UniProtKB/TrEMBL annotation:
It catalyses: L-threonylcarbamoyladenylate + adenosine(37) in tRNA = N(6)-L-threonylcarbamoyladenosine(37) in tRNA + AMP + H(+). Keywords: Acyltransferase, Cytoplasm, Iron, Metal-binding, Transferase, tRNA processing. GO terms for molecular function: iron ion binding; tRNA N(6)-L-threonylcarbamoyladenine synthase activity. Belongs to the KAE1 / TsaD family. This is tRNA N6-adenosine threonylcarbamoyltransferase. Substrate binds at L142, V143, S144, G145, G146, D175, G188, E192, N282. Residues 25-317 form the Gcp-like domain.
Length: 345
């Protein structure tokens, strides 16, 4: 029985995972409302909130699973905000000492990478290993506010990074674009909402890609293009055409993601394609990438909505799924936070 803690940024989360059943409980405290007034996450406020809410969340979790049934504690080691990661690590080590059980660190990005398989395990835990084997090697696309990456998971469940962003992440580009247009926080969902009523061809933004023949991403030029476009428009016109601006801007971001994913699929012999990370909750992106997978005749797997953002469920699952792949830090009480921990070396 695994108890997982997550505190990499602005969500405090706890989850319980039983390998024979799946996730038996997930509890999350979101800080979005708190940080909205500042237009982004304030680290000091975030760490204070973790301190205030880990206790109540753990109390709820332990009402369903007695401490004596917990055989392992796992916690997000990185990447993330240092002060926030430290809160989770301190809580995890304290519980490990009190209960005399091992504690391990999980890579937040690798947990995202494995999150599309959580549903596969829930459908039939006993057959999971065999079913997963049929889907490997796997191509994954991680799209979040801080990361954009293409990676593979091979037959031994080891992760290899194929490409990442050279500057801004896709989610960051959406959030910054939303801020330029005066939208609320978080910006990505606001852009998605307005884009639904706009035209994707209303404005010609540059396609947010690096060299066409490579898999690397680049989004900083797109953000600059939006700023120049807005500077040419009167405030009243910006307000009246926000839906078109959002639709065109979002389309440019997504075209880059789709193009690179298609190129990667064409270059490798993959048996499945997955989407994870906070931006994976965008329905437009889901539909576009599902079409790419269908064209290549591979299954399309995406993380469930509750596992696209920061959550402890994927941390618990990854700790178990990667148990033999070398992706979990087993340093125990010597475990340290790693704010800049990469997806793969």
């Amino acid at each position: 029985m695994i108890l997982a803690l997550e505190s990499s940024c602005d969500e405090t989360a706890v989850a319980v995972f039983d390998p024979t059943v799946g996730l038996t409980g997930e509890w999350v405290h979101s800080q979005i409302a708190l940080h909205e007034a500042y237009g982004g996450v304030v680290p000091d406020l975030a760490s204070r909130e973790h301190l205030a809410h880990f206790g109540p969340l753990l109390q709820r979790a332990l009402a369903t699973v007695p401490p004596e049934q917990v055989t392992r504690i796992v916690v997000t080691q990185g990447p993330g905000l240092a002060a926030c990661l430290a809160m989770g690590l301190a809580a995890a080590k304290s519980l490990a000492l009190a209960w005399r059980v091992p504690v391990a660190g999980v890579n937040h990005l690798r947990a995202h990478a494995f999150s599309p398989f959580i549903g596969l395990h829930a459908a039939n835990p006993a057959a999971f290993d065999d079913e997963l084997a049929k889907l490997l090697p796997h191509l994954g696309l991680l799209v979040s506010g801080g990361n954009t990456a293409l990676f593979t998971i091979d037959e031994t469940r080891r992760i290899t990074l194929l490409a990442s962003t050279m500057d801004d992440a896709a989610g960051e580009a959406l959030d910054k674009g939303a801020k330029l247009m005066g939208l609320g926080y978080p910006g990505g969902p606001q852009v998605e909402k307005l884009a639904a009523a706009g035209r994707t061809d209303a404005f010609q933004f540059p396609k947010a890609v690096a060299q066409r023949s490579t898999l690397e991403f680049s989004f900083s030029g797109l953000k600059t293009s939006l700023r120049y476009q807005l500077e040419k428009m009167p405030a009243a016109e910006i307000e009246s055409r926000k839906a078109d601006l959002c639709a065109s801007y979002q389309a440019a971001v997504f075209e880059a993601l789709v193009r690179k994913a298609r190129l990667a699929l064409e270059r490798g012999a993959y048996r499945s394609f997955g989407l994870s990370g906070g931006v994976a909750n965008n329905r437009t992106l889901q539909g576009l990438l599902e079409q790419v997978a269908q064209a290549q005749n591979v299954p399309f797997l995406r993380a469930q909505a509750k596992h696209t953002g920061d959550n402890a469920g994927m941390i618990a699952f990854a700790a178990w799924a990667e148990r033999e792949a070398g992706g979990v830090d087993e340093s125990g009480l010597e475990l340290e936070i790693a704010p800049s921990l990469p997806l793969a070396k």
